[in-house]
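Extended Data, panel c. Modelled sequence:
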Amino acid sequence: MHASDERAAMLTLCSKLIEKNSPEELSCFITECARKVLLMIQKRLDEDILREIVNSFFLEKLHLVCEKIVNTRPLNPSGYFYKAVENFVYSWLSKRNKQKVVSLDSPIDSLQTSRDDPESVEFIDVISAEDDKLTESLVDVLAEEYFEPFVSFCKRKRTDMFLYICFLISQHYNESDRFRNPSWSQANVYKIIERTRKFLREFQEEFSIEDRVLGKILETFYQNECRRYENR
């Protein structure tokens, strides 16, 4: 089977798994998902932006999301797909609000390399105060939405994952002794850190979470769940 045929077959199966009868219905579903998310964010719907987002999703994300659904068979494929579209919309809008401008105050050899364009040495990212607030608000909304699923994910994986995560985050605040079990050897610590990082990567992949959103989730987790864990 040619690659194009395999891709078409996967999209057809993906459509059926999320209860759409054809790739055409899948396309309509993507558009409606993106429309709902945009209406939650914007005061009025910009159809041009909606089209750009949908086209970008088809080019950049659709194949990956469908591949994940087909291979892992999540319990709620439609919900998983909607979340993937939702995350993509937030990410797309966040990137769109970043403006690349030439820094007139800095010498050419001191310009920072842009994260979005690693090969660029003549531009730096500048985000206006208004756009910065918008970006942070999008991160906050997603972090709040995925916090409870994260806690549930921890409980489902293993009973001591709460402690492991608290210990991992505590190192960032130079408080590693706060959650370290006295019985842990240094070898234990290395294994725990690696196991916890692997767990966080699994959560990111399953829910399609951006790094900044995960960082916000972990910050809230440390302030709330770790404090409760410590005081029980």
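The two ends are 58 Å apart (CA to CA). This feature is highlighted in the accompanying rendering.
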